[in-house]
Each structure stands twice: as structure tokens, then as C-alpha cells.
Amino acid sequence: MMIRTSCAFACCIALFNGVVSAAAAPAAAPASQPAAATSGDALTKSGLTKIGQNVTLQAEQTLAQGIRDLTKAKAKMDADNRARANVEKEIDRAKTAYAQWENERRGELEKLAKVKDAFQNNQIVAKIEKLEDNMKQAVKYRDEQNKALAKIGDDSRTKYINDVIELAALAEKASAKYAELAKDKEVTDAVASAKAKLGPTPEFTQQFNLIKRMRAPIFAETIKVTFEGKVPFIEVALNGSTTRKMVLDSGSSTVCIPADLAKAMELVPGPNDPDVQLQLADGKLVTAKLSKLKSVRVGQFTVNDVECAILPPELVAAQPLLGGSFLNNFTYKLDVAKEELHLARIGGDPKETSKKPGAK
Predict the structure, then answer these.
(1) Which CATH number is 117's domain given?
(2) Does residue 136 sit in the same domain as residue 206?
(3) Residues whose CB falls within 8 Å of the CB of residue 21, separated by 6 or more in sequence, listed in order
(4) Domain extent for 203
(5) Beta-carbon neighbour count of residue 40 at 10 Å?
(6) Which of 9, 40, 48, 313 has its Cα between 20 and 30 A from that of 94?
(7) Could you tell me the pTM of the whole model?
(8) 239 lies in a domain?
(9) Percent composition of the chain: helix, strand, coil (DSSP 3-state, to 5)
(10) pLDDT above 80 (res 312)
């Protein structure tokens, strides 16, 4: 009996202890679990991740990778810029040669009108024919170089500028976010609980300063575009005093000014200004006069000494065109849906850009 009683008593004691232990265990678990979940939630909802001893935003990794990608993008842009500059020199050389031969041709035509001797007449005619052949060759060479220029394109420069602008904006946003998080007690307590340090890290600060230096020389602006039918127009200031709506025409190699507008601006072609053959949208060829505008301004951007073609008076319905001699100084993109023209350029003062030979 005593043995059975002792066993029963022992079993009761063991059972009691088990019940107490089982009852006590659940009470201890909830005490630590909510604290861990709260700490993790505070970091996660704020977009923070613990890496080593630091708690950082994803933007840090994005910025680091972006900087590496920009190094490659800049190398490609620089190589394309060198190739573009070489081709543009050849285009300018062809234009100069054409203008010189055109001037000589005019002189020979004046002689031809006065000469009486048949032998001299034939000599002058032969010289004129030679000059005209040279002019045709210059035009052919210029057109070939323009095709080479188009093949190089402007994609690398556009990509570099867009990537720098986007990455700089991301870094600015991340920096502001860190400043905001540093004032959030829930976040700072969670960081302390994780025994970590809230960013930005020294690496981010260094890369942020770098992207700001890369962004500083890039000027960009969005210009309002109006459409008449499907034709885009923008406001342009010519020679600092004349403002006109001009057709945005990336397919035109130069700015084109109708004869009546040129007259109103007192932009009168001189006798030595060369002729240029232009092909209209309907395929018709017309002869225009090459001249220069003192300045062309769109938004904040001004380009000085801009080549232009003054259209013949018979094109009475012609619209002024904003073409390549202005646009090629920039990277540009027409957003038809938003009716916006995005202009950007690296370096210089946006209020004054001198057009130099070979400049794009």
C-alpha cells in the first residue's frame, strides 16, 4: 500500500509539475515574440534592410550599380563624340569647298557675259563646268558624311544624360529619406534593437557626391509643344528680338527662314552667301541662301551664330523650321502624348552657346 501510495503521490506531483510547466511556457513566449516582430516590421515598412552592421535603403545598392554602369556609358559617349566630331569636320570642309567653288563660278559667269572671243569663251565655259562638277562632288561627299553622322547617332549621349539625371534624382530622394528616418523614433529604436547603424553609409555619401558632380554640368528643360494637325510647333526667339512659332523638324539639317520673315528681321543675304539645294516634304528641290542668325533661343537655351537657310520668296506659304543647326547642339526627345520637347545638354552656360565648327 505504501509503495502504491508513494507511486501515486509521485505521479501526482510529476503531473502537477508538468501542468505548471506547460502552463508557464506559453506565458513566456508571447513576451519576446511581439518585440522581435515589431522591430522587423519597423525596418521593413520603411524600406530598410540590415546588411552587416548597417541598416540601409535599397537605393544604396541601386546607386552603386548605377555608378558602375555610368562609367561604361560615358566611355561609349566619349568615343561616339570623337567619331561625330571627325565626321562634322568633314561636313564643314565640304561646305567650305562648295562655297568657294560657288563664288568662283559666279565670277566666271560674270566674265562669260562680257567676253567676245570664242576661244576665251570656251575656256571660261570649261572652267565653269569643272567648278560645277566640283560642287556636285562636294554635295555628294557632304551627303555621304551626313549619312555617316546619322549612323553614329546620338543614342549614347542621350542615354548617359538620362541615366545621370535619373540616378541623381534617386540619390537625392534617398538622402532625404534617410534624414526623415533619422527623426522617426520607431525606426531608430528598431535599428538600436538590431544593434546596427542607420545609413547613409560612407560609401553612399561618397557616391552621392560623385553623382552630384556628374549632374552639375547637365542642363535640361521641358518645352511646351503645340500641335496643328500632326505638326509640332514651339516658341522660338530669333536674334533676341523676334519671337515666332516654328515647326519642330528634326529631319531638316538646318534652321529654315521664309523670305518674308527674313525681310522683317532685316536678314538680307549677301552676294557672297552660298546657295544651298533643299528638298521639300513633297520632294520638290528649291534653291535657298545660306546665312546665319545671331542667336536662337528655346526656353533657357540659347545658341549663337546659327546657320540658317533663307527660303525663296515664291514659297509664300512656307513655315519657319527649327532644324538641326539648332537641335544638334542638344539631346532632344519629343513626347507627343504629353506635348513636350525635352532638351538637355552637357556643359557650358545654357544662356549662351557659341556654334563652333564641328560642334554638335
Answers:
(1) 1.10.287
(2) yes
(3) none
(4) 55-216
(5) 14
(6) 313
(7) 0.67
(8) yes
(9) 55, 25, 20
(10) yes
Q: Which residues of 126-138 are buried (b: 16+ CB within 10 A; e: fewer)?
A: ebbeebeebbeeb
Judgement on whether residues 250 and 176 belong to the same structural domain of the protein:
no
Domain total in the chain: 2
pLDDT of residue 6: 42
Q: Are 252 and 321 in contact (CB under 8 A)?
A: yes
**Residue 342, CB-side half-sphere exposure with 13 Å CA sphere:** 12
C-beta atoms surrounding 307 within 10 Å: 18
- Run of H or E including 79: helix 58-114
Q: Is residue 328 part of a domain?
A: yes
Distance between CA atoms of residues 157 and 77, nearest Å: 5
| Contact predicate 295/355, CB 8 Å | no
Same domain, residue pair 180 and 196: yes
Torsions phi, psi for 236 (to 5 deg) = -135, 135
40 within domain boundaries: no
Average pLDDT of the chain, as a whole number: 84
Q: Indicate if 347 and 204 belong to the same structural domain.
A: no
